[in-house]
Write a structure and sequence with these properties.
With about 90 residues, the protein is an alpha+beta fold. It has one helix and three strands. The longest helix is centred in the last third of the chain and has 32 residues.
Amino acid sequence: MVHTRTWTVQITIDEREDERRTRAVAVLRTEARPQVRGEGTARRAPRDREIPEIGDELAAARALADLAYQLLDVTAADIEEVTHRPVRLPG
């Protein structure tokens, strides 16, 4: 039997122009567990042109990468709970 699940990732991006910083938060929501959250930032050097989309993309990519590592940690903890042995899941 095939089981299909839908997981939702919501990315929220905020830009602080005065700090030349963009921050993104990626939140994974599933029916099976509490949410998992990743964060990422991008900073614009003073000499760089202001192109908000680039900061958004970089901050979001870093938030998703952090989310992936957080999910690996959650998975390792779940496996350890079942096997009662330490687990290392390389990223």
